[in-house]
Design brief:
heterodimer; A: mainly alpha; ABC transporter involved in vitamin B12 uptake, BtuC; two-stranded antiparallel ribbon; 14 helices; 2 strands; 77% helix; disordered C terminus; B: alpha/beta; Rossmann fold; 2 domains; six-stranded mixed β-sheet; 34% helix; 24% strand
Chain lengths: 338, 512
């Protein structure tokens, strides 16, 4: 029995990328307890609820960015697609369009950005930084233009108070089993995308491309299609977060999701997703998003200024990547010899 | 499967790359149950032809049939399904993935949409066992030594149940024992009726396995012969279009004064208490198996890797080398093993590559590079080393392996270097270019520059070096005069591992 247990632990530890994820979880616990000691209110039920909810947004975009990062690419358009999603859905609802239809139209628009990213990076072989920098500006431009360069009115003005409340509850204020729906949405997406990445052929191909594109191609992996899929996942996650922000505000904000692409990189990287591609687990992204939000929340609770918050988070990100580099050297740094 | 039946037939294959006609109406034929050596110098078009057969490139013209079936444009996947597998010259492994994952990449087994990891792992284990390759299928490929990665590549190709197997320089990274294993596998496949295309620059290997040879030159088909009916000299003559007089040209020089003295050098596990001398007018060869610590020794001397202890004396004066620039300034330079990775900036021009380590000589006081001096230096290098290139502005990437090696050497000779260290300078280079590299080393030797020369090819070390130092497991195990050395003696020294039962792994693996 005991031996069996040890076998399981050994197997878990031997999963590639688990090191980074577990380190982030350990960091999370230390940070959380440290803040809790300074201000016990951190442990309060309501604060935990809020924490879980705000963490959820970062987890979702983190999942999208992680898919892209593992192939060795990056998606800078995430924040803008979040904004686009919030603005398009809100504008449509203000016009009185049925919320379900509004959401579907929004989804279609967001996926178009994903397809374009995939086409530019996968097919046209543009450097992903440049390609998605372009779509970042374009998508943000669209977010501005949707409602004529201004934020929307309350969505309730179009679909009625009841409809507006329902929408807001589904995505933000409502609770199921005592926990905010936002968290459940995030967990559902986490489970689905965790499964896709670790158990399916496409998931395996995503790792292979990040590890060695040439080898993947020569093994018959469809690199263009797989790359496009990662950008579609990223666009889909951004779309969901856009709806959440729309639900939170009850209206569309043109600046919604600003800088989220970077928060998403941070969440992934803190959790041990290598920005060089080939390794990382979504479990790490979960840990990374939690670290990120716990820090922000904790610093808030102890009354730290925004400036300090940013500074600390910046240091943590660099530190996490530094760990990754050191770890890589340890594992792969052995030199070929003759 | 029937024996001696034509299974691949390619006629009039044409392939043009921008500016180069890589294949000019080439024909090729492969029969079942034979090993066909495809020979030619670098740039002869062998790899291009095989990449067309395996679907990596599409041809511009010509016909191709596999097992009697005509094929149009192939993709890697279609070729795989037709029974063609290729082991590429460069290692094409996903280093983050495991042995199993690499073997099944692109054709994963699934149960519904879920990957059947256990099934794949069991099958991988079975294949590895059949091939007698001692590897754990769950191990991450990036952690394996290069030779083992090569074996994974071979296992991967075989796991597709290929009936046509193309091996492009499969042995260049293998140890002697692994080469024997590979040959055993090849003979086995042959007896099962598979057709094998074998590309190699190591002609001395051919006699062990090859049935027929096809020779190509400059993108053209030259001839196909039965190996038994021909001689190596005839093959070489066909490859280069002329006879090569001496395989190992030798220049006799008077041994001069001592230039370099290394005393008690220690740097990690792979460099332990290394001491040797290097004299004017001699080439010292470093022989040994892969993983003997020779590359590490050169890196430690050159200041790439930190030293734990030891002295380096140049012309009797001790020099402190903490980083490569110290070594360069002192006049000790290194032409590293991997030209493309460590030796050249492949995306920069020849001019920029040659100028790079010499910018201190080329700049005026304000740090502006003198274009005139730079051009002079490059023209000089191109002339002295006979670098074949239309001009010095083309990317180093576009040169053939031999010419790239000359650029690496050229950048060092542009300054007053006293000791030149070559690490596997002829790996992956064709016969004619090899001779040019040997001539180059002889030229340095005649000029009184100390030449230290690491090579895993024993005939080469014995043919070129004046003195041979043998290393094993990070230590120098012996020193021989080349004129008196035999292969057996060198091999005995190269396998003289320390007797330690606890250290069994080191003995078995040998390479790290």
């Amino acid at each position: 029995m005991n031996q069996n247990k040890q076998g399981v632990i050994k197997r878990i530890l031997s999963i590639r990328g688990m090191g980074g994820a577990l380190t982030a979880f350990a960091g999370l616990i230390v940070i959380y307890i440290a803040f809790g000691i300074i201000n016990p209110k951190v442990f309060a039920g309501q604060n935990v609820m809020n924490l879980l909810r705000s963490m959820s947004k970062y987890l979702i975009i983190g999942i999208g960015q992680s898919y892209v990062l593992i192939t060795g690419n990056i998606d800078l358009s995430i924040g803008s697609v979040v904004g686009m999603s919030a603005m398009i859905s809100a504008t449509l609802m203000c016009l009185g369009v049925n919320p379900v239809l509004a959401v579907l139209i929004t989804l279609a628009c967001c996926m178009v950005v994903g397809v374009i990213n995939g086409f530019l990076v996968g097919k046209c072989k543009l450097p992903p930084f440049i390609a998605t920098l372009g779509t970042m500006f374009v998508a943000r431009g669209i977010a501005y233009m949707v409602n004529g360069n201004r934020n929307t009115d309350a969505i309730a003005s179009g679909i009625g108070k009841e409809g507006g409340d329902t929408f807001q509850n589904v995505f933000y204020y409502g609770k199921t089993l005592g926990i905010y729906n936002t968290f459940w949405i995030a967990i559902l997406l986490f489970v689905i995308f965790f499964f896709l990445l670790s158990k399916t052929r496409t998931g395996r191909h995503i790792y292979a491309i990040g590890s060695n594109v040439e080898a993947a191609k020569l093994s018959g992996v469809n690199v263009v299609a797989t790359t496009t899929k990662t950008y579609l996942v990223s666009a889909f996650c951004s779309f969901v977060v856009g709806l959440i922000l729309c639900g939170q505000a009850g209206m569309g904000n043109m600046e919604a999701g600003n800088m989220y692409e970077m928060y998403a990189v941070a969440a992934g990287v803190i959790g041990g997703i290598s920005p060089l591609g080939g390794t990382g687990l979504l479990l790490g992204t979960l840990a990374g998003a939690s670290v990120w939000q716990t820090l922000e929340n904790g610093l808030n609770m102890i009354g730290a200024q925004v400036g300090i918050q940013r500074l600390v988070i910046g240091i943590i990100v660099v530190f996490a990547v530094l760990l990754d580099v050191v770890f890589r050297k340890g594992v792969f740094g052995k030199r070929r010899s003759a | 499967m029937k024996m001696n039946e034509v299974i691949v037939s390619m006629e009039n294959i044409v392939k043009t790359f921008p500016g180069v006609k890589a294949l000019d109406h080439v024909r090729f034929e492969l029969r079942s149950g034979e090993v066909m050596a495809l020979l030619g110098e670098n740039g002869a078009g062998k790899s291009t032809l095989m990449k067309i057969l395996s679907g990596v490139y599409t041809r511009d013209g010509g016909t191709m049939s596999i097992f009697g079936k005509e094929y149009g444009d192939l993709t890697p996947k279609m070729a795989q399904e037709a029974g063609v597998a290729i082991i590429h010259q460069e290692l094409n492994m996903c280093r983050h993935l495991s042995v199993t994952e690499n073997m099944f990449l692109g054709r994963e087994k699934r149960n519904g949409i879920i990957l059947s990891n256990r099934e794949m792992e069991n099958e991988a284990r079975k294949i590895l066992e059949e091939l007698k390759i001692d590897l754990d299928p769950g191990q991450v490929v990036g952690e394996l030594p290069v030779s083992k990665q090569q074996m994974v590549e071979i296992a991967k190709a075989l796991s597709t149940n290929a009936r046509i197997l193309i091996m492009d320089e499969p042995t260049s990274a293998l140890t002697a024992r692994e080469i024997e294993d590979l040959f055993r596998i090849i003979r086995d496949l042959k007896s099962k009726g598979c057709g094998i295309v074998y590309i190699s620059h190591r002609l001395e290997e051919l006699e062990h396995i090859v049935d027929r040879v096809t020779v190509m030159r400059d993108g053209q088909y030259i001839t196909t012969m039965n190996f038994a009916d021909t001689t190596l000299d005839e093959i070489i003559a066909n490859m280069v279009g002329r006879e090569i007089k001496e395989k190992f040209p030798r220049v006799e020089c008077k041994k001069g004064k001592k230039i370099l003295e290394v005393r008690g050098l220690n740097a990690g596990r792979m460099v332990r208490d290394v001491s040797f001398d290097l004299y004017e007018g001699e080439i010292v060869g470093f022989a040994g198996l892969m993983g003997a610590g020779r590359t590490e020794t050169t890196r430690a001397i050159f200041g790439v890797d930190p030293k734990e202890s030891g002295q380096i004396l140049l012309n009797g004066q001790e020099v402190q080398i903490r980083k490569p620039s110290d070594a360069i300034r002192a006049g000790i330079v290194l032409a590293p093993e991997d030209r493309k990775k460590d030796g050249l900036c492949t995306k920069l021009s020849i001019r920029q590559n040659i100028a790079l380590p010499n910018l201190d000589l080329l700049c005026d006081k304000a740090g502006v590079v003198s274009r005139r001096k730079e051009t002079e230096m490059c023209d000089q290098a191109v002339k002295n080393l006979k670098i074949k290139t239309p001009n010095v502005e083309i990317n180093a990437d576009n040169l053939s392996g031999g010419n790239q090696q000359k650029v690496v050497v050229g950048k060092w000779l542009a300054r007053d270097s006293k000791v030149v260290i070559f690490d596997e300078p002829t790996r992956g280079i064709d016969v004619a270019a090899k001779v040019e590299i040997y001539n180059l080393m002889n030229m340095l030797k005649a000029e009184g520059i100390g030449v230290m020369f690491v090579s895993s090819e024993m005939p080469e070390v014995m043919g070129i070096a004046d003195r041979i130092i043998v290393m094993c497991d990070g230590r120098i195990t012996g020193e021989l005069m080349a004129s008196e050395a035999t292969q057996n003696e060198i091999l005995t020294l190269a396998t003289r591992f320390e007797k330690k039962i606890a250290d069994k792994e080191t003995v078995g693996g040998g390479e790290s």
